[in-house]
């Protein structure tokens, strides 16, 4: 008898489409929860912190990161393992893969980290992966967390190919950018291979909060390395995918797979999918398959496959669209995020008046939706655009990650504790 | 195709929000005008009472011309009946005579039914209809629902949208 290890719920923006001569859009909100009744257990964590110690980290940033790392060591359990790598122009193993039996000497090593040199992320990642692999990966949640405040130099591609290589081996990657000088697009791409998180830590004093939250989630992992197999009928294309919960993150496809990441505790892994559907003949029933594969850590099952589908009727008359509220809200949040991204495309394309208009519209929409703080930021940026023809780097990141986090706010997260 | 009622962008069938301006494309949903962050103007001083006084408001005018500098648009309307100022709302069948949709009224915080211009026995008057972001006449904030006389060359701000008025006799 097959066991349903995953409980999958699919909400659609519509149950039927009209037979039209042009392509149409369909949104699906897919929520994946642990199946069965088994309580989610904590699995041993195998963590590696890869810390940027370049000159720009000197001072409060590095001190806060060191303090956060020390607090983490304090919080981790005796079955967990941790390693710490620092990098500047090269990488150093500050803490080799260690069990957390005797903590004070580990914390003392963290305290010894000093800032100097450039930012070469690849060296750090490579050394981090080597430390993670010192213990058997099976049965553990293996995760590398990168903390950086700058651009890497010339090794972007090497970083991305490493991230792609380690994802199928069961090693996840999250990346936190501190301050506003790091390359957000690069970090997004870096984590996408494993479905991990990239986030903006504006102020150094938030480092611990972000790390703790991420590690709390990782400690509750029920299933990992989840992928959506993209095997859709002719004329149906997955345009974009965006993870909504447990954190908001753009998804990316590779080898016909969408990397979704992990199901953490009872919090649903929630994904918003946007499909385009080419003209269809009336009377047809489209069966849209949503096949998931992944490793169920809680039951030690590898490459489990869950086959779900969404039925869509093709009718002659225009069906009424009455999507569920949670889906509408997620689409609206995604729309805010995209409007902001388009402002940047306008600015980069030199169309300042279009950029200003769009930013003003975003201001209005954010206000309508009650997101006053983000609206004020958007307003400040629209003023800056119209008077100076540019935007601020901080504003850019605040709006990008602020609108992104609105997605997660549309889901009622259940308490894990 | 769905045409966005706010910005006129063509969106794909099945879209829920306009990709150009973020407007909701779900039919029958009403949205209120957003209160803009620059509505600090709501605390601007109220003009000294002009009620009951006639400072020579335009009484002989037959037509009024509105000049909207930000969009460069000019609109000429007859003064023989009430001129409502706002943004058209097809779902509510509201078609104000001076429709500021094209002048990006929404971005500038113009309410759907923002103000009214009427010819009274004291001449042509401007009345704010309790708009979300208020109406300023020559930089005075008008209290809602009270008539204020208009003069040739007056400067009005509906929300944040600047409009000049000129009268023709």
User: How much helical structure, as a percent, in the residues of chain B?
Assistant: under 10%
The total count of helices of chain A amounts to 10
Low-pLDDT sequence parts of chain B? 49-56
Q: How does the overall form of chain A come out from the CA principal axes?
A: globular
Q: Write down the Rg of chain B.
A: 17 Å
The second-level CATH architecture of the largest domain in chain B is: Sandwich
Strand content of chain A: 25-35%
Largest sheet of chain A: 6 strands, mixed
Physical arrangement of strands within the biggest beta sheet of chain A: 2-17-16-10-14-13
Top-tier CATH class of the largest domain in chain B: Mainly Beta
Class derived from helix and strand content of chain B: mainly beta
* Strand percentage of chain B: 25-35%
What is the CATH top level name of the largest domain in chain A? Alpha Beta
- Number of domains in the coordinates of chain B? 2
Order of helices and strands of chain A: EEEEHEEHHEHEHEHEEEEEEEEHHHH
Fold-level CATH name of the largest domain in chain A:
Rossmann fold
Describe the structure.
The complex is a heterodimer of chains A (417) and B (169). Helix content of chain A is 35%, strand content 32%. With 417 residues, chain A is of the alpha/beta class. Chain A folds into 3 domains: 6-40 and 222-315, Immunoglobulin-like (Sandwich); 45-219, 3-Layer(aba) Sandwich (Rossmann fold), CATH 3.40.50.410; 325-409, no CATH class. The mean pLDDT of chain A is 88. In chain B, strands 4-3-13-12-9-10 form a 6-stranded antiparallel beta sheet, with no helix packed on it. In chain B, strands 6-5-7-8-11 form a 5-stranded mixed beta sheet, with no helix packed on it. The chains are: A alpha/beta (417), B mainly beta (169). At the A-B interface, strand 3, helix 7, helix 8 and helix 9 of A face loops of B.
